Amino acid sequence: MWRVAGVIAASGALMLSGCANNSDSGTSGTATTAATAEKVDSIANTVPDPIKSSGKLIVGTDPTYAPNEFKDPNGKIIGFDVDLMNAIAATLGLTPEYRPSAFDKIIPSVQGGSYNVGMSSFTDSKEREQQVDFVTYFQAGSAWAQKVGAGINPDDACGKRVAVQTATVQDTNEMPARNAKCAKEGKPAIAVLKFDDQSAATNAVLLGQADAMSADSPVTAYAIKQSDGKLEQVGEIFDSAPYGWVVPKGSPLAQSLQKALEHLIQTGAYKQVAANWGAEKGLIDKPVINGATS
């Protein structure tokens, strides 16, 4: 994980709610949206016995990616993903317990049994499906933001400074592909500035330390909204792909999560949670297990 973020955060130029320290112990979700969902016995009975008997759903998350998962000023983990998982857990008759983690530690921790579910805006990819299973719940692309009027072109950004969050698809897939294109054209590489959390990447653009940022489309939209007119989207949304909840390979919990989401889609609770966070554009009609497109 990159540690440049501390320098930027110290300036205090932009206090985004996602900047909160994520070193807290686990936070139990008392569920801001649990009222929109109730236990459905036929679905709850599909939950694996060890989880069912515990009454808890242990969820690993990196709460630095507003508006999907981040901390409010009091340190409580909130966001679109959190509200949706609260409703999923209620449907399953479970209490969600959110455990903060570095993003790149979540999948190994799910594999090792420390978490029942990984929930951190994970893009479902063929590569990741070799390690774990995914239950899709949303569709997102990537989008760039710049300071208003900066004139950055994502398709011709060679030599520019672009901020991303560590281990995201923008870091591991997009930037290497763009830099390969720069090299092929004999142009200078994009200077990829990598940060521990998305709020620090956004701050880098606002402070002029980066020319642009690339993030998942709902995250970029939220950063723009929170910037008080200082940021704007540049270019179109691209590389649309599904988000998925992470479970151990072959776990029957995948079917439980899938059935719970299908139920919330039918009742309208899924749409309401998305509307509360301005995330309607990424809604899906049918969740699947391992729905990666690339």
From TrEMBL:
GO CC terms, sorted? cell envelope
> Quick one: signal sequence residues?
1-22
The superkingdom listed in its UniProt entry is Bacteria
Q: Which UniProt keywords apply?
A: Signal
What SMART domains does the record point to?
PBPb
UniProt domain Solute-binding protein family 3/N-terminal: residue ranges: 56-281
Predominant place of localization: other
Q: Where in the cell is it found?
A: Cell envelope
Q: Which Pfam families match?
A: SBP_bac_3
**Which family is this protein grouped under?**
Belongs to the bacterial solute-binding protein 3 family.
Q: What is this protein called?
A: ABC transporter substrate-binding protein
Q: Which source organism? A: Mycobacterium dioxanotrophicus
